[in-house]
Structures are given as C-alpha cells and as structure tokens.
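In this supplementary section we document a worked example of the pipeline. Step one takes a protein sequence of length 429 as its only input; no multiple sequence alignment statistics are reported here. Step two produces a three-dimensional model, which step three serialises into structure tokens for compact storage. The input and output of this example are shown verbatim.
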Amino acid sequence: MPELQDDLRAEITLAGQWFDHLRSHSKGRLGVTRASYGEGEQMAHDLMRALGREFALEERIDAAGNLYLTLPGRDRTRPAIMTGSHLDSVPEGGNYDGAAGVVAGMALLARWRRAGRQPVQDITVMGVRAEELSWFPAPYIGSRAAFGLLEPEALDRCRRPDTGRTLAEHMAEAGFAPERIRAREPQLVPERIRCFLELHIEQGPVLVQKGFPVGIVTGIRGNLRYRDCHVLGRYGHAGAEPRESRRDAVLAGVEFVYRLEELWSEYELAGKDLVATVGRFHTDVDVHTMTKIPGEVWFTMDIRSEDNAVLLEVDRRLRGIAAEIGARRGVAIDPGAFTNARPGPIDPALRARLQTLAAQVDIPAMPMSSGAGHDSAVFGNMGVPTAMIFVRNDHGSHNPDEAMEIGDFAQGLKLLVAAVEDLDGASAA
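The serialised model returned by step three reads:
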C-alpha cells in the first residue's frame, strides 16, 4: 500500500469554496433548494462539470442525466473505482446532504491531479440525479435508471408537485433521453465497477451524541412506504350518537397507529432492526367539523429495516391488525399499496478495510447502521462491492440547519482518500 499522505489543506480549502458556491446559488427563503431535474440541481451539476474541465477529467452524461467525471487509469480494461452521491436537495433543506459526497470525490481527484499521479484503473466521481423523494414519488431515480431498473411507468406516473409535470417531461426538458430509460437501457454495467464508496453526512444525531467525527456504515435500511392509508367509517352527530353504534374513523386510526408502535416494540425486544413513522394523519377538512363524528381518515406510513423479510412480515401483520380493528369497530382500514426499497448490502471486506484504515490514519470512527436510504443501496443490490462513510452533522438533515463542520468533513475525506489509495495500491501489487 502506498504511504498515506496527510496534507489535504489545499483540497479542504477548495471544498469549502465549492460548498459556498452551492449554497449561494441555491439559497431559498430558509435553506437551499436543488429540485430534481430543476434549476438548483442543474447548477450543481454544472459546477462539477466545470471542475471536471479544470482538472482535465473525462466527462460522460447518461440518458437520465447522471454525471460521470473520470480520472483515466493506466489500465483502462480494469473495473473502475467509483465514488459520489446525489446533488439534489429537499425543498428548503441543508447544503450538505448528498453534495458532500460529490464534493469529496472531486477533492480526491483534485489531489491526484495536484500530485501528478495516475491510478492503475479509472477513478470515477458520479453525480447522481433525483435521489430525494420530495420531487418525484419513486426511490433512487437516478441510480436505478443508471442500471436499467427504473420502472417505465414511473416516468409518466411521477409528477413534480411544484410543476405538475411528469418525470419524463422534466428529463426531456433538461435534454436527456427518457425513451432510453423507458426501454430500461443500462447506463452502467456492474461488472465494470470494482467498488462504490459513498461519503455522506449522517442524517441523525448518533455521531454527535457519541462524539465521533466519522461513522462506518454497517448496513442501509430498506423501507416500505405507504402513501394512501385510508380509514372509512361513518359520519354522525357528535352529541346524539352513542358510543356502541359509532363508526369513528379517527379512533380506529389511532388504535391502528398504537398497534403499530406495539409491533415495533415487539421486534425491538426480539433484537430485530425496525423503525416506523406515521406522517400525515388527517380528516377531510372540507367535510369534517368539530360537531361531527369523523367518517374518514387518511395517513401515511414509513417503515424501515435492514432486513427485507422483516419488512414484508410487518406488512402482513399490519393488514391482519387492520382487519381485526375494522371488524370490531365497524370501519374499513386499508393500508393501501406500498413501495419497497430493498435494504442495501455493505461489503464486509470493504467495511473492515475502512475500519482498519481509520485506525491507521488516526480517525476516530464508529460502526453504525444507516437509517436513511442512499444510492449506495442500489449499487450494493446490483452486486457492486459497496461501502459508506458518514460524517458527523449536527441538527440532522432535510432541514436548513444541517451543520457539518469542515473539520469533520476533512476527516471523512481523509478516510476516503486512504481507501482509494489503498485500493489502487492493491491493484498495482
């Protein structure tokens, strides 16, 4: 393995400038907004393309608009080392979610160019399109499209809420080729990728609470997402209807949510990974009033686990609970359809190597699960050896208060550099 170098000051300075550019060119009322297939996301891709030209990197843009910037290797027949992340954000979100991984990849390549080094195999930074579900209701649009996995119907079914236009329309408007994505034409071949390494901010409080600047991900939770859960009861007079004849949709819905939490506790006690969240929970504001027994309720559920079998088992059990409550209360509880993003496997050898390298370069790093989904999950499920580095970030993510310190980013970048140099050294051996 080549001697690991510690001097990243020049690259950290550049990274800070790139983060400032991203923030100032996508700043909204509260945070930043880089809409998928919108102006902000395109600005971020344009910045990375300009950096690619500055560093004399090879550029490719695929049919879905994903960006690939490559430092060519001495032996281009070898599978490439890939890194990167997404460049979109949630509405009025933070500056680092996703972007930190692409900035880290570009800083890595800037370092190699500054040193005048050429890797054994290609090293590619990928700027992924449309990772955030806020804009189109389908998971991992850019990375799944890259592997020919995006369902053709998603192109016409998914509409951006701020424009009302479809994913296909936005792709075409941006100059890409939705018809090739509709045909499930692969833009990436797994066999041509040696590994995928993604640096990302942590989106929860664990690293902050535990006092670690860096986390090494052990697994990426998959999810079930239910967008149209519905309880149908019967409207009635709030004062005149006795309890035994009521078909109260709110009380039935509340009981269902309580039973969901009981189920969650049961799995936790059994040592099985599970988290569950109910998002929207509402009556029809145009029909329901204070003096009516509520006849309808709508809600959403987001259920996550590292084990997809657990997710599917929970779905079966929840439908049984819905039927039992419905029969007893005289209502119909329908969880509706769900989308299933499978958990992302992390390569054990890559994960172990990251832990060893962190110790060698004196970076305090803790192993941890990823509660959020990431594009890495798609790579892992395609059989590409995959690993993730988390960087400490106060105040969580998906909000304007993301607070990644540049010093913590430097530690994450240092580990990413060590990993790529180690892999390249192993290639040369």
